Amino acid sequence: MPSDAVLYQAAALCLTYPDDDLVARLPLLREAAPQLREFTDHAAVTPLLDLAAHYVEVFDLKNRHSLYLSWWHDGDTRRRGMSLVRFKDVYRRHGLEFSGEELPDFLPAVLEFTARTGETGLLTEHRTGLEQLRTRLAACGTPYAGVLDAVCAALPASHPGARR
After folding, report:
1. Sites in the chain below the pLDDT cut of 50
2. Do residues 105 and 79 lie in contact, with contact meaning Cβ atoms separated by under 8 Å?
3. Run of H or E including 131
4. How many angstroms separate the CA atoms of 113 and 115, rounded?
5. What is the pTM of this model?
């Protein structure tokens, strides 16, 4: 398991739709992943309904801040379907069956997979999309930008066969 497993798991929680469970876990997240403190501090003082409204505004209204990694590479094209199959294949090769309500390229799911397996390949292959998302989140001034800053900083250097 990578030394950044706790960070990846904490980031996965921060990037899911905020609910009472997230609020209850904020002290633990703050302690376990100090790299996420900007977000956890913000979430700790923001009412849950406001957190939820902000999440929807940032991630759900436009693809400009898409949390679906294949969207950054393939857009809304037919080849995206093959990319989604590939995500599922990677999960299966590690003994995991993807059965979530979200698509397999949903960033929180990929972060959780990375935390559990130590396999950073899906994240590094989609580094360009992650960097674009990080830049766009920073430009709109959301605390979620700090979560992407920490994830991108923790990624190992790209390998020669990485997708761009």
Report:
1. 1-2, 160-164
2. no
3. helix 127-139
4. 5
5. 0.90
